[in-house]
C-alpha cells in the first residue's frame, strides 16, 4: 500500500476532486462512499494507481448530490482524503473508505480529458491539520461532551460514549461534526472553521440553536 502522507510536503498540488453535496471530510475521520458512476470508477482506478488522494468538495448549489456539469460552481475549501480501503460491493460498484488528511483551498481548475474534475490547490493555510492535537488545549472537553450528549438525545442519535472517553479531543470533535445530522451549509461552516476550538464552538452553537428553536426559546 502507498504510504499515507504525514505533512503537506507529501502532497501533490494537482488533485482529482469529487463534488458531493452534504459531504464533510475532516482530518482524523473516515468516510465511506459508494462509487458506481463511470466518471468516478475512472477516478478510483487512477488514484489507486497513483497517490490514493482525492478531494471532497461541496457544490455551492446543493440541489444535485454530485452534479455532472463541469462548470458547476464549487466552494473554495474542501477536504483531502486518502484512500484507506476499497472493495467491490457488487458488479460495477465499489465501497471505498476515505481517511481525512487536511483541508485545501482551490486555486484554479485544470483543463483535462479525464471524465472527472481536477484542480490545483493550496494546503499551506491548513498545514496544522496534520497535527492531531493542535489547539485542543483550548477546549473545555467536559463542556463539549455535555453539549453533544444533550444534542444526541434531542436529535435521537447515539455516540459510542465508552469509546469517546479515550478518544483524543481533536478526533472527538471532528467525528462529532461528521456524525451530526446537519445540512450542506452547516457542514461547510464546520469545515471552514479556523481552528479546532472554533469548530467545537460552532458545533455547540448549532446544537443549542436547534434545541432552542424546537423549544421556542432563544439561546443568548
How would you describe this structure in keywords?
32% helix; Archaeosine Trna-guanine Transglycosylase, Chain: A, domain 4; single chain; alpha+beta; 6 helices; five-stranded mixed beta barrel; 220 residues
Outline the structure in words.
It is a single chain. This protein is of the alpha+beta class. The chain has two domains: 8-128, Roll (Archaeosine Trna-guanine Transglycosylase, Chain: A, domain 4); 136-212, no CATH class. 32% of the residues lie in helices and 25% in strands. The protein has six helices and six strands. The chain has helices at 38-49, 141-155, 161-164, 169-179, 184-192, 196-215; strands at 14-19, 30-35, 53-57, 77-90, 93-110, 117-122. It has a five-stranded mixed barrel. The longest helix is centred in the last third of the chain and has 20 residues, at 196-215. The chain starts with 13 loop residues before the first strand and ends in a 5-residue tail after the last helix.
Helix content class: 25-40%
Q: What is the oligomeric state here?
A: single chain
The CATH homologous superfamily of the largest domain is named: LON domain-like
For this structure, what is the CATH class of the largest domain? Answer: Mainly Beta
Shape: globular
Record the strand order, biggest sheet.
Answer: 1-3-4-5-6
Quickly give the structural class: alpha+beta
Beta-strand segment tally: 6
Average predicted confidence as pLDDT: 92
- State the helix count: 6
Into which percentage range does the β-strand content fall? Answer: 25-35%
Distance between the termini: 50 Å
Largest beta sheet, briefly? Answer: 5 strands, mixed, barrel
Radius of gyration: 18 Å
Q: Classify the fold: give the CATH topology of the largest domain.
A: Archaeosine Trna-guanine Transglycosylase, Chain: A, domain 4
Low-confidence stretches: none
Give the domain tally: 2
Name the CATH architecture of the largest domain. Answer: Roll
